[in-house]
Amino acid sequence: MGQSLIQGLIASGLKHGLCIQGRTKARTLNVAQQYDVTPFHAQCQIDILIIAVKPHQVQDAIAPLMPYLASSLIVSVLAGISVATLKQYFSNQTIVRAMPNLAVAQQAGLTALYSEAETKIHLDYINELFQGLGQTCWLEAESSMHAATVFLGSAPAFFIRFYQGLLSQGEQALSHSICESMLKNALIAALDLLGQYAPEEAMQRVASKGGITQEGLVHLNSELDKLLDQTITAALERSRAIE
Questions:
Q1: How far apart are CA 65 and CA 198, in angstroms?
Q2: Do 27 and 127 share a domain, yes or no?
Q3: Which of 62, 52, 151 minimizes the C-alpha distance to 98?
Q4: Which of these, 78, 135, 79, 80, lies nearest to 103 by C-alpha position?
Q5: Residue 200 belongs to domain with CATH number
Q6: Contact indicator for 207, 217 with CB cutoff of 8 Å
Q7: I want to staple 170 with a disulfide (CB 3.0 to 4.6 A). Which of 54, 152, 157, 179 is the partner?
Q8: Within this chain, do residues 96 and 212 fall inside the same structural domain, yes or no?
């Protein structure tokens, strides 16, 4: 996620304002060279710190920065890590939790945001920053970040897994390249329908009564809801366990 944010911020015109700090010096230099941005040094002014490492890497990543963060805004992209936990590191700073998805790299993402802070100018600043990467939505309760993590952060992988399953089935009758082209086009068609109709009506536009699609949906519907319930429940429980 960190590199997707870097790509999106560069695309939004903020390249010269970026300063990178990785969990190790070697990692910092590698990422800085890859994107031609500035590695952290003592002269960097940190107006906003975006933390986008694995939760267990936080302490090592931020340790070199702590003397320079007294007046910084803190944005955490750490899945499952609460504001209360973050305050153990940043007791006096404004903290915003953010859950973007990988599409921020193309400035086409959606970022869910939450903060306990009431300083409007700070929150407007963060909102504008992430709107440069796509769209934003603000959550009223921090507990909603668990759902945002699953339905915004994890959901692309769930869609891809379903696509992978269809591809595997299709390759039993078609070449990989032809099946892949068909399924990617089907995804485009599905998104187009969902842009016009509610899901039930969108399916009805494809599935005629007693037809081939309807027959497949009968079998899919009998198993899918149970599987999705298990999938989402497991992901939500993992998010809460991290907190």
A1: 48
A2: yes
A3: 52
A4: 135
A5: 1.10.3730.10
A6: yes
A7: 179
A8: no
Q: CA-CA distance, 41 to 95, in Å (whole number)?
A: 23
Residue by residue, DSSP assigns 48-112 as: EEEE-S-GGGHHHHHGGGGGG-TT-EEEE--TT--HHHHTTT-SSS-EEEEE--GGGGGT-EEEE
Whether the CB-CB separation of 4 and 102 falls below 8 Å is answered with: yes
- 8 A C-beta contact, residue 101 and residue 156: yes
Closest CA to 99 of 157, 60, 138: 138
Instruction: Answer with the one of 87, 109, 141 that is the final residue of a domain.
Output: 141
Q: What is the pLDDT of residues 37-62, one digit of tens each?
A: 888 887 778 888 999 988 788 888 88
Assess whether 42 and 61 both reside in one domain.
Answer: yes
Contact 66, 49 (CB under 8 A): no
Q: Which domain holds residue 123?
A: 2-141
Q: Work out the pLDDT band at 142, boundaries 50, 70, 90.
A: very high
Contact indicator for 114, 142 with CB cutoff of 8 Å: yes
State pTM to two decimals. 0.85
Together in a domain, 11 and 53:
yes
Q: 95 falls in which pLDDT band (50, 70, 90)?
A: very high
Reported as half-sphere exposure (CB side, CA atoms, 13 A), residue 37 has a value of: 26
DSSP state for residue 10 in the 8-state scheme: H
Distance of CA 210 to the CA centre of its chain: 39
Give dist(CA 111, CA 4) in Å, integer.
12
My answer on whether 25 and 98 are in the same domain is: yes
- Same domain for 170 and 67: no
Claim to verify: residue 22 and residue 131 sit in the same structural domain: yes
